[in-house]
Amino acid sequence: MITGAILSLFPFYWLLVMSTATTADMFRFPPRLLPGDQLLVNIGKVLDHVGFFRSFGNSLLVAGTHTALVLFFCSLAGFAFAKFQFPAKAPLFFFLLATMMVPQQLGLIPQFIIMQKLGWINDLKALIVPGAASAFGIFWMRQYTTSVVHDELINAGRIDGCNSFDLYWRVALPVLRPALATLGIITFLGSWNDYLWPLVVISVQEKFTIQMLIASMNGVYSTDYSMVMAATLMATVPLIIVFSLFSRQFIAGLMQGSVKD
User: Residue 102: exposed, middle, or buried by beta-carbon count in 10 A (0-12, 13-18, 19+)?
Assistant: First the structure.
């Protein structure tokens, strides 16, 4: 486990080392393995030459809103699939699972046409609304709800006068927190690191996400890699914070069902 942890953490350590070095140091052989003294200089260059905080704010808005919508709609749909009976339930769930087999790239052109007709090109809504629910999220929440939200809870809620939404909001949702934390982390990381879809629908620099900004720092003839590494390090900090805050619930969500009471 220690060896695996070292191998997993080494890229982050290497990122830290490279962000504290100059571009010339990155091409030195043998490579340096200890941090240098250029971190503040490189961060200063990032803040002076590119709109880092503007792109950081765009990514934070997109990833945060996207995650909140996914958690709400996917948990609501997963709860409905797990605990309610309605016409065509099985075919709808089968169709939902079938969409998970379709590569994301095949939907780029149809989604772009829809965004164009809505007038959402170069608008952050185009990065939020299309992903407001995901097939994986619904499947994940449905499976988790089936295993932890027992029918006795639902029946007790009905006896107490809960309607269908109250059963979801007051009875099921508190029990689903580990699953929500797991799905939230996965969704936030995916949205924060997404580059392909923003590249398709966003072309104005004021709407750039953090990943697009970092990619734009690679010049045609020359690239200041020390500045790129510093920007990448700064963009990684929110991911580390999010995972640190919800790691316990994340592990609990993944471990659900692996042991029996």
Answer: exposed
